[in-house]
Please model this.
Amino acid sequence: MLSKFHRSHKGFTLIELMIVVVIIGILAALAIPRFMAATSKSKQSECKQILKQIYVMERAYRQEYDSYWGNGITADAANGNNFARIGVQIMASARYAYAMAADATTFTCTATANIDDDATIDTWTMNQNGALVNTIDDPTT
Model:
């Protein structure tokens, strides 16, 4: 026979629920910064790909015309066809803006974007030697 103090209660106590909430909070605190860093790095892959494409097409242009192309030309998502002369198109979903400085023997293309909505602007450059340099790394600053 069951006593009147021995009842079958179903459910969780407040302490058990608080422990679960604390565990979830700790896991979120560890996971969210890593997730943000991974998304920022994936956004940077856009500019790396386009800058490498610009490098290849500039080299091909110089082989044909004995000079690099595009001094002072800029392109971004709104003006994606500005690099069409060398066969590069910036897609409408692009995050970065690209600026070209070129003369007969050298070129430098600079890509800039604010990829994590802070005051720092992510900046990459590619030159005629194929040197890809991240001069300002937005996700880490």
